[in-house]
Specification:
13 helices; binds fe (ii) ion; 6-stranded mixed β-sheet; 7-stranded mixed β-sheet; Metallo-beta-lactamase, Chain A
Length: 365
């Protein structure tokens, strides 16, 4: 089964059993929400199907078997079919699933409409922000077609692609979106991106219909990191502030630089906390792969103050606490940063999937 077919079935809420047969360690790293794990990988590879026989599968419900790349799952699906079960294998496995996505609508008072577009297999969050006949895309992480279809459904035209920073965990699709549609590409002012773009400085605005995004320079996660304030009551925080934590300050940095960035992050977060406390924070990642539940990954600033302990600390304690809790760096981040700075990754997306595979690790929690 192609990932798009599985995506559509999950979005429609159709009953199916997602059977994850990867080794335990891979399952622990990331998984499809709602999937069921069976310790069968080595056995199935050796064509011993007894662990599958032992499963109690609901009658008449299709089974989709998942592994890392789609080979072992195909053996398992063949076997289940030989037993009369409607079984499929997820083509390309979790590697391909990295590109699957789902949606959540963000409710805001007023006329601006926001759709949160989530890479379900990865946790990258991007946004379509529409006002009247215009729309902006923030942190595009999927192919242009996805955003085009969404904008069309809202009766809007995409007029700009905006990134919050140079990403380290996935390939930005902002440049591709901008080139495909012939629309401006907005990036925070930086000396990293080696391709034409419109540089945004603190306070700059991008108009969208009757509203706008206003750049709030928030260095820390990276030096150029910028949040975008929507006056209608939301802020796009990229990897500066998440619903469960704050941005990691250490990628591509020496120890001293990570410390300096953690200090900058402290002051950036103070600036965010100066916004009205009911401002809705719309982050660049979720901690867990977003489910097909239509529930936005979002929280108000006041909810985050109550939830995230780092936000209550004074500067020196904040810096120590953040540096002490940075997770291991995401795999391949040097190469991803290199490609995002060059903006020149070409055509074959499938060849780049290995680079992006795996969970997000941009947050310190
Ligand atoms: Fe990031």
């Amino acid at each position: 089964m192609h990932r798009e077919e599985l995506r559509a079935r999950l979005e429609r809420g159709e009953p199916l059993v997602l059977l994850d047969i990867r080794p335990r360690e891979e399952r622990a790293e990331w998984a499809i929400p709602g999937s069921r794990w069976v310790d069968a990988y080595d056995a199935v590879k050796a064509e011993d199907f007894r662990p599958l026989d032992a499963l109690d599968l609901p009658a008449g419900v299709p089974v989709v078997v998942v592994c890392a790349a789609g080979k072992t799952s195909a053996l398992a699906a063949d076997y289940l079919r030989s037993r009369g079960i409607e079984a499929h294998s997820l083509e390309g496995g979790m590697r391909a699933w990295s590109l699957a996505w789902n949606l959540a609508e963000i409710e805001l008072p007023g006329a601006v409409r926001i759709v949160q577009v989530r890479r379900a297999g990865k946790g990258c969050l991007s946004y379509l922000v529409a006002s009247g006949a215009e729309a902006l895309v923030v942190d595009a992480a999927l192919e242009p077609e996805v955003y085009l279809a969404l904008a069309e459904a809202l009766g809007a035209q995409i007029t700009g692609a905006v990134d919050t920073h140079v990403h380290a965990d996935h390939l930005s699709r902002a440049r591709r979106l901008s080139a495909t549609l012939g629309i401006p590409l907005y990036l925070p002012a930086n000396d990293r991106a080696q391709y034409p773009h419109q540089a945004l400085s603190d306070g700059d605005r991008i108009q969208v219909g009757a509203s706008w995004l206003q750049a709030l320079h928030t260095p820390g996660h990276t030096w150029e990191s910028t949040c975008y304030v929507l006056p209608d009551g939301a802020v796009f925080t990229g990897d500066t502030l998440f619903t469960e934590g704050v941005g990691r300050p250490d990628l591509e940095a020496t120890g001293d630089e990570a410390r300096a960035r953690a200090g900058a992050l402290y002051h950036s977060l103070r600036r965010l906390l100066d916004l009205p406390s009911d401002t809705l924070v719309l982050p660049g990642h979720s901690a867990e792969p977003p489910d097909f539940d239509g529930r936005p990954v979002a929280a108000t600033l006041s909810e985050l103050v109550a939830r995230i302990e780092f936000l209550a600390l004074a500067e020196a304690a904040f810096v120590e606490a953040v540096l002490a809790r940075v997770p291991p760096p995401p795999p391949n981040h040097h190469r991803i940063v290199e490609l995002n700075e060059a903006g020149s990754w070409a055509g074959d997306l499938d060849a780049l999937l290995d680079l992006e595979a795996g969970a997000n690790r941009c947050a310190v929690r």
